[in-house]
Amino acid sequence: MKGIVLAGGSGTRLYPLTRAVSKQMLPVYNKPLIYYPLSVLMLGRIRNILIISSPQHVNAFRGLLGDGSRLGLNIEYAEQPEPNGIAEALVIGAEFIGNDPVTLVLGDNVFHGPGFGRLLQAESRDVDGCVLFGYAVADPERYGIGEVDGDGRLVSLEEKPARPRSDLAITGLYVYDNNVVDVAKNIRPSRRGELEITDVNRVYLEQGRARMVNLGRGFAWLDTGTPDALLQASQFVQTLEQRQGVRIACLEEISFRMGFIDAGACYELGSQMSQMDYGRYLMEIAHQN
């Protein structure tokens, strides 16, 4: 399984914050936003990851994450010259994907919930078709909405429906079999010239090979595309971390917990930041284990 983080776009809804800085580099409490979608792939035991960003921002991600080896990962980079739709990530990443299935996650989405890693691992194992992840929302007319049958099979997809058939919004996390590269290459661009991910998902729907997993109560899904949403995500992470004494989307800890690096490597990463709580937290975790 390969993983792609789409960290492109112009971030216009966050101007002036994003006039010179990538949206995915903005802080969500105490970490860059991109740590959160990257942690999703890691929790799914995905270690080969492609980060796609705009030409003016891609080097910033290289400076932050490097080749991923310190985290036990292999991270590669590609450019999306213009924000031409989510599905374009699958075309840009075609060579990287090769003959493997792929999990695509949007770079401005935050996910958190109990057992999330086990869920991702189970749903990405031997995937045949596509797996989407739904989240119940109070205002479904503002989202792409999926309707499922009793077995979780997707039966309809609607973009911002006036009369929604369900309250399950389709989140920015998608798991596909290898056929998705050909599907993405053959869909027609929208009137705006974009390759829409909904059109990719609709192909699988028409083939009867699309499922949607309801994340359910107890999970959190946050889209940080506006200043208010970015602040709310920071407050959410701050509250959980301070009350529970654990870190959310701490990449170094996840690498250690998943067995990508050993305790010594985790301790060394923490010692490089030993003047900060973040570093001391890593050192304590490594010491305990």
UniProtKB/TrEMBL annotation:
Residues 2-238 form the Nucleotidyl transferase domain. The keyword Magnesium applies. GO terms for biological process: hexose metabolic process; polysaccharide biosynthetic process. Its cofactor is Mg(2+). It catalyses: dTTP + alpha-D-glucose 1-phosphate + H(+) = dTDP-alpha-D-glucose + diphosphate. One of its GO terms (molecular function) is glucose-1-phosphate thymidylyltransferase activity. InterPro entries: G1P_thy_trans_s, NTP_transferase_dom, Nucleotide-diphossugar_trans. Its EC number is 2.7.7.24. Coiled coil: none annotated. Belongs to the glucose-1-phosphate thymidylyltransferase family. Catalyzes the formation of dTDP-glucose, from dTTP and glucose 1-phosphate, as well as its pyrophosphorolysis. This is Glucose-1-phosphate thymidylyltransferase. It comes from Streptomyces sparsogenes DSM 40356.
